[in-house]
Predict the structure.
Amino acid sequence: MPTTTTQAGEQLTIPSRKLEWIAILEKFGVFLFLLLLIIFFQFQNERFLSVRNVVNILSDVSIYGILSVGMTLVVLTSGIDLSIGSLLAFGSMCGAVAVKSWPVLVASGYSWVVALAISLTVAVACAILGTFSMMQQRALTRLALEQQLKLQYDSVIAAIDY
């Protein structure tokens, strides 16, 4: 590192510019990469930054934002919940079954209410099991995944028979 001498005879070290760039990249590297990606995709397609496309992108990733807020709260309370992916898939399958099974709900536009109610009920049941029972988190995750896969299998068989 370069050094300099003051009038009093003390030696001072001058920090290198290289270290400043490393600190900047450590702090803002992800945002710089995101900015580079946005610039790249804008050059690939001039409609990339249109209002419609930005709204589509934000609506597509909104579910992951909601799930990440929930997982952050779980981690902050020194817990871990691995069943979130299974519960998301289970909620999706509940929506598909509600749309397929009850055409009246689809016509009225309320099939999402049934899917949401079923998904919330299952999520609350998993939360209660995970909180108040001695069940391991891995066992709870496996239980949620098995139920979701069973629902998927039954739905596929029902669709084939239909």
Observations:
- Strands lie at 3-5, 11-13.
